[in-house]
Amino acid sequence: MEKLRRSMLFMPGNNPSMLQDAAILGADSIILDLEDAVSLTEKDSARILVREALKTIDFSQVELVVRVNPMDTEFGPLDVDMIARVKPDTLLIPKANEEQIKIVDTMLDKIEAEEGYLAGSIKIIALIETALGLENVYNVIQASNRIVGVLLGGEDLTSDLGIERTKEGEEIFYARNKVATACRALKVDSIDTPFTDTNDFEGLAKDTAKAKSLGLTGKSAINPRQIEIIHSVFSPTEAELKHALKVLEVMQQAEKEGKGVCSLEGKMIDAPVINRARNTVALGRSLGLLER
Amino acid sequence: MRITKVAKAGTLESNDILIMVMSSKSDRVELELESIVLQQFGDVIERVILHKVQEMGVEGITIKAQDKGALDYTIGARVETAIKRAI
Fold this sequence. Notes:
The complex is a heterodimer. Chain A is an alpha/beta fold. In chain A, 47% of the residues lie in helices and 16% in strands. In chain A, helix 3 links the parallel strand 3 (63-67) and strand 4 (90-93). The longest helix of chain A is centred in the C-terminal third of the chain and has 19 residues, at 238-256. Chain B is of the alpha+beta class. Chain B has a single domain (7-86), classed as Ribosomal Protein S5, domain 2 (2-Layer Sandwich), CATH 3.30.230.10. Helix content of chain B is 38%, strand content 28%. Chain B has two helices and four strands, in the order E-E-E-H-E-H. In chain B, helix 1 (38-55) packs across helix 2 (72-86). The chains are: A alpha/beta, B alpha+beta. Chain A binds chain B through residues 15-17, 20, 44-45, 48-49, 51-53, 55-57, and chain B through 9-10, 13-16, 70-74, 76-78, 80-81, 84-85.
């Protein structure tokens, strides 16, 4: 099973206290942010602090992602050049489009060769937060073999669309569908936009469940208190695990008996059902909910 | 290398350090350090600051540092940023 990205927690890149705590907060991935969380006058300072943090702090228990500035600003290329040299797991590229992903990919090829890192070892997550990026998301994912996921940025996207962002999130229904489908088609992760009311846990649970029901595979967070709820939504329940195991058992029995078709509790078990069961069991195993 | 301007980096928040650098008339490196952990770690903080200054090849510099319990990586980062801003 690939690396789990149920939760990705944003942490401001210029705050030493938060950088030091980031790895132990329980998120599957942490995103050290050089973009929106850092003022224009502190971009240089945050870039150097994050580089030193990566060299010093043990982030080995989480996926370490750095959100750089957009590549069409003066800061983006400087961020990539400095941060990639201390080998984060992944770079998060804001306002992603094909052209910018290709620029980052080429820069990473050069840096990996210069630093002696395995070619292609630094991954990319595309942050889709413009109407153009959203409509083109399939091609954006295909722009580099380094892409392991897409993160949907609901706030910037709705701003670009000139529409209101609401707690219910109906306005990003299409975007969630589009991202989830493109990501599933190209077998990369799809990470939902953060839920910005950090005191509304019921709202967070509903919003996360909605994202999951549309096919998204994880959710970003802006506060450590959101992680547990996100994980509980994206982890299979005991009943789901039991059902999945039963499906696989029935399928194996049918194979032994040479039957082409089988059923469980009156419902036909076909390839999509088996696939879903396999995914559920694999997720359960990687979370330690089932024996390996 | 000599610095030409007065520059600052860092903050006075906990786990951070505020560094101010300015050029000095002499070729020496002069350091004024305040820290909430001066008794326990004063000499370590001083060593980290001076090491970074030396690594960057800077001479003739006065550094004022107000430490709020920063770890070594933060101290090094803030000194580097302040010097780069002052060049």
